[in-house]
Design goal:
Length: 985
């Protein structure tokens, strides 16, 4: 029997999974499971709780509530559902669910007593009733019927809406339905914990009241819930009864916000990291641990969840908990966060003396302080034997001996470090090493959430880089020598060389006026072309205040005072050049807040500011003219990777060459480096692939502006599965195009025309299928002209080879210093690059053979590890040269392959390179005209093979008298045919 895939299939699967983790489920048989509970507990359709079921449980869980008084209690509880505002009602009901509800009971002696009545038993979960049902219908002003609902003791805690991709819907549509349900019947969600939106492939969850952008994945699980089916794993890990009760009781915050309160539940990495901390404290085996979570993953909330749980749960004996930050700015941010949260026991250390008093008093509460306040705290003042410290930005914890002061003041504490960029400078004791500082022997970290995971989860974006570090200088060497000799004629040659080594560095070069002028021209041009058209903003990072002032002056001259702000501090002793841009703390705060908005300024020029802890999603591009490394570079990269609607990636324009040797700049593991920054051309490659992918839907449809073509194309995508494929594919294509344009290659490679054709089909498709009055309103098709990226600017080199930073080039920290590992990785990566291209050009085949030869000689100890690395890198460079040479000669891939074969494989058979070029062009031209490529399987069809042979006869024998090529070389025809087919003509 064949069953058509639908959302009912998704629904039944979810119910079966829930049944497997401890829920009593109804509806797996295809009927409405809610009917079973409705009949058993006589629920009216307007009610959102199973009141009779709850009454039974309240009597069972509370000795003072009996059959005689439970009705009075339930009547009182019903009034708690009648909230005018959903979030206010949810917050109040959450108190009842976690703390209990007050109730007056009459004793036998006639007196009354006020007690707390528990609605849920958290200590003994088996005493509760857990129901999962489908099609729970509620009728108030309107009727809603979510797909699956989870009830604990008759109380609806989780509402799920499911979609089937086979029916042209996905989890985004499910979120829309859930938000509509909350508006239509808010009473259902007053007791709710969170909602779930899922489709055939993916699951997202969001707190009650959360906007759609806060529906997130749950991509981790304890070993007992691990599953190859990612969606099944997510449901079992998130929605098992134990986790539901834990989240409800211990992981809910309410935050006061200007537009109304917000409910906050943890992300999966926050939840599991907190539980690791709780487990470590409870076991007491180690007193340290490193939480390595990438920037943007919410480390602040992880610390706050940990603090809340440490203070209120029976993990330690009434502990004193410290959150330590290392700047006043971070302290202010955390203080404001605490003031707006539903966290009760906390205080802020206002001074060194106040901090010392708090430590000595040892009261069980959360203490917020900066590390600097430990500077003069007396040693051994710890007044509580259960102290737990959490240090933010732990990679900076060891600086300026402040860590030592903390250790002296709190010698017997648990200490957990939180960082996105740990430091590992070396293995000597004096070298800074976050792992050694915070991790017990044999452990790198207590919990890890990587850059890769952050990108895959959509919490952060990938960052691409563009090199702009090489400039062509016209140097008057004689004049330079003369001036140098005049200035330093009293020095010996060695003294001069020493002076140059000590004083002429990257910072000096960054302050040379001609260089600043060229860089400013490039920034001005790049910003107008790539950043401003999409509404994003930029930041210029400089190595000194002087260079920042020079950049600021020239950018203001070109862009105006409103668009540019310069941020650093100056003193009265500084020259006027630097003093002119001095800002105090208040002024900087105001500028930063303005920058985060849509208006002015558009560009920030900074020195030693905003490279850590600065979160502005509107910032897309960083112009980097400072030589950063390791954690400082990772912190800088993270300034550009914050998501915003329509933003596909962050971008670094590198004027220092930091990214030229990324494995030297980032001493991190392969995964972190591979996902930290990628070559910008990879984004363009993704766009090209996506255009072709969407165009494949219309194979056989003429790409013209005729009525027939449009009619046929719209019909093609009006039914399944093409309808879903086109909707989802074009949505992704729009985002990529928005991120790439303007770029000259869009025109030169024909991408713009293909995109315009698809855009028009999309307009017609939407008008036909949705009946929208103005379907172009939400189209993001470019209205601006595509301006070529290949503008001649001789002062700055732009044509660098582009490398994709993937794990095949990168190894772990230890492996980076091992040439043998490097050789192995480069060989693997080069083969991966060459394998699919071997039949596209004869040079690729020869290069592939060279790789094999190098590897065999290396493995046979004929050449050393470093020599193998050098030889393999040489092959890499030649691979790139093949592509560059084709572009320089204006040939497409097929033409260049045939030209290369004629000039390099059979040079004696042709008269000249010009003839080879003409022959290659004519073969490809006739191939395009005569070979039908508009159907699947054309490449292997006998008709294609025969037609190519006829083309070769016509061009080589009839037109050019080169028949000997075919007669004397049996492999020639096969080679040319492969070039044509493999390069798609």
């Amino acid at each position: 029997m064949v069953s058509t895939p639908s959302e009912y299939g998704v629904e039944r699967s979810l119910l079966s999974w829930l049944d497997g983790v401890g829920w009593e489920t109804h509806g797996q048989d295809g009927d409405r499971g809610a009917n079973v509970l409705d009949d058993a507990y006589e629920r009216d359709s307007h009610e959102v709780l199973y009141w009779y079921l709850l009454a039974e449980q309240v009597v069972a869980l509370n000795d003072a509530v009996t059959e005689d008084n439970v009705e009075k209690f339930i009547s009182s509880l019903k009034r708690d559902l009648d909230a005018e505002n959903l979030m206010n009602g949810n917050r109040a009901f959450h108190q009842l669910l976690t703390k209990g509800k007050t109730f007056s009971v009459q004793r036998d002696d006639g007196t009354t007593e006020t007690i707390y009545v528990d609605l849920i038993d958290y200590e003994n979960p088996e005493n509760n009733r857990f129901h999962a049902v489908n099609q729970f219908s509620v009728s108030r002003e309107t009727t809603i019927r979510p797909d699956v609902s989870l009830f604990v003791n008759g109380i609806p805690l989780v509402t799920m809406e499911l979609k089937s991709q086979a029916q042209d819907n996905d989890w985004h549509d499910a979120v829309s339905d859930l938000l509509a349900y909350q508006d239509d019947v808010p009473h259902l969600f007053v007791p709710g914990l969170f909602n779930v939106a899922a489709d055939t492939m993916e699951l997202r969850y969001g707190a009650v009241g959360a906007p759609r952008e806060f529906y997130e994945p749950w991509n981790d699980a304890p070993a007992k819930y691990e599953d190859d089916n990612e969606m099944r794993q997510a449901l079992k890990a998130l929605c098992n009864p134990s986790t539901i009760l834990d989240l409800l009781k211990n992981f809910v915050f309410y935050e006061r916000r200007a537009g109304g309160d917000a409910k906050i539940v943890p992300r999966y990495m926050q939840y599991y990291a907190v539980n690791r901390i709780l487990d470590r404290v409870h076991r007491g085996e180690h007193k340290r641990g490193l939480i390595w979570h990438t920037q943007g993953s919410g480390k602040s909330f992880t610390m706050l969840y940990a603090a809340e749980n440490l203070l209120k749960r029976d993990v330690a004996r009434n502990p004193q908990v410290f959150i330590i930050v290392d700047t006043d700015k971070l302290n202010s941010q955390m203080r404001d966060q605490l003031a707006n949260l539903s966290l009760e026991q906390w205080t802020e250390a206002e001074s060194i003396n106040h901090l010392e008093e708090l430590i000595e008093r040892g009261q069980s509460e959360l203490v917020l302080t900066t590390i600097q306040k430990f500077e003069n705290v007396e040693p051994n003042v710890q007044g509580h034997d259960e102290v737990i410290v959490m240090s933010d930005e732990a990679h900076r914890f060891m600086e300026a001996d402040l860590g030592s002061r903390l250790n002296a003041a709190l010698p017997d504490c648990y200490h957990f470090g939180f960082t996105g960029t740990p430091v590992r400078e070396g293995e000597r004791h004096e070298d800074r090493n976050t792992f050694r500082e915070f991790s017990p022997d044999g452990e790198d970290y207590l919990h890890r959430y990587s850059v890769k995971q952050g990108i895959e989860d959509g919490l952060i974006l990938p960052v691409y880089f563009t090199l702009r570090h090489e400039m062509e200088w016209e140097i008057d060497e004689a004049g330079l020598d003369e001036e140098f000799e005049k200035e330093f004629r009293g020095m010996t040659t060695d003294e001069k060389l020493e002076f140059i080594r000590d004083n002429v560095n990257a910072t000096t070069l960054a302050e040379i006026e001609p260089r600043v002028e060229r860089a400013v021209d490039e920034i001005d041009h790049h910003y107008d072309e790539h950043v401003a058209p999409n509404g994003w903003k930029g930041m210029v990072v400089t190595p000194s205040r002087r260079s920042a002032a020079m950049y600021g002056e020239r950018l203001i001259e070109q862009r105006g005072e409103d668009e540019v702000e310069v941020l650093y501090t100056a003193t009265k002793g500084d020259p006027e050049l630097i003093q002119q841009f001095h800002t105090d703390s208040e002024e900087r705060d105001s500028i930063i807040q303005d920058f985060k908005k849509e208006d002015e300024p558009k560009l920030l020029v900074v020195h030693n500011m905003l490279l850590t802890g600065f979160d502005a999603p509107v910032l897309k591009t960083m112009y980097l003219d400072r030589n950063l490394k390791n954690h400082n570079l990772m912190q800088a990269i993270a300034r550009t990777n914050r998501p915003a609607e329509g933003k596909e990636n962050g971008e670094i324009v590198d004027f220092q060459g930091v990214f030229e040797n990324i494995d030297e700049a980032l001493e991190y593991d392969a995964e972190t480096k591979a996902y930290a920054a990628r070559d910008k051309d990879e984004l363009f490659d993704d766009l090209v692939d996506q255009v072709e992918s969407v165009l494949e839907i219309f194979d056989g449809v003429p790409k013209t502006d005729s009525q027939e073509a449009t009619y046929e194309a719209v019909n093609r995508v009006s039914t399944h599965p093409e309808r879903r494929e086109f909707k989802q594919g074009f949505r992704h294509l729009q985002n990529l195009y928005e991120a790439v344009a303007p770029d000259g290659r869009l025109v030169s490679e024909g991408i713009e025309q293909k995109y315009k054709w698809l855009s028009r089909i999309h307009v017609a498709f939407k008008r036909t299928t949705s009946g929208e009055d103005d379907p172009e309103e939400d189209m993001r098709e470019k209205t601006r002209d595509i301006i070529s990226n290949n503008v001649e600017i001789t002062e700055i080199k732009r044509d660098f080879p582009t490398y994709k930073l993937g794990e095949e080039y990168l190894e772990d920290v230890e492996g980076l210093d091992n040439p043998g590992v490097k050789a192995s990785q480069i060989a693997h990566a080069t083969r991966e690059h060459l394998h699919p291209r071997e039949n596209q050009n004869p040079r690729y085949k020869r290069l592939s053979e060279r790789v094999t030869d190098i590897v065999e000689r290396w493995q046979g100890d004929e050449i050393s590890d470093p020599d193998a690395v050098e030889a393999l890198r040489s092959v890499e460079e030649e691979i790139l040269e093949v592509e560059e040479e084709a572009e320089e000669q204006g040939m497409d891939d097929a033409e260049f392959a045939i030209y290369t074969h004629l000039t390099e494989e059979t040079p004696d058979a042709i008269e000249s390179e010009e003839q080879a070029e003409e022959v290659a062009e004519e073969i490809v031209s006739q191939f395009r005209d005569r070979v039908d490529r508009g159907y699947t399987g054309w490449k292997t069809n006998q008709q294609t093979i025969s037609e190519i042979e006829r083309i070769l006869l016509d061009v080589l024998v009839v037109e050019n008298d080169l028949g000997h090529l075919i007669q004397e070389d049996d492999e020639f025809v096969d080679a040319i045919r492969n070039y044509l087919i493999q390069n798609n003509g």
